[in-house]
Design goal:
- It is built from four helices and three strands, in the order ββααβαα.
- It has 76 residues and is mostly helical.
- The protein has one domain: 3-Layer(aba) Sandwich (GIY-YIG endonuclease), CATH 3.40.1440.
- It has a three-stranded antiparallel beta sheet with strand order 2-1-3, with no helix packed on it.
- A hairpin with a 5-residue loop joins strand 1 and strand 2.
- It is globular, with a radius of gyration of 12 Å.
């Protein structure tokens, strides 16, 4: 999960986090994050496979903003 300059949160999956972060910060990974740089990684979690990662991403996206912030805070 990324925290954008405007305070919004962006959630996604990747199998190469450093490369994906670099693309987000370069403005080439997502239209949403392109206009909201700089970005800061606030939460990450490994999953055993892509299917599990997609399910977890969906669950995180369903959380309220407060729930997402609590998740990020608990992992720091």
């Amino acid at each position: 999960m990324l925290r954008c300059r405007d305070g919004s949160l962006y959630t996604g999956i990747t199998n190469d986090l450093p490369k994906r972060l670099a693309r987000h910060n370069a403005g080439t990974a997502s239209a949403y994050t392109r206009a909201r740089r700089p970005l800061r990684l606030v939460f990450q979690e490994r999953q055993p496979d892509r299917s599990a990662a997609l399910r977890r991403e969906a669950a995180v996206r369903r959380l309220t903003r407060a729930g997402k912030l609590a998740l990020a805070r608990d992992r720091q």
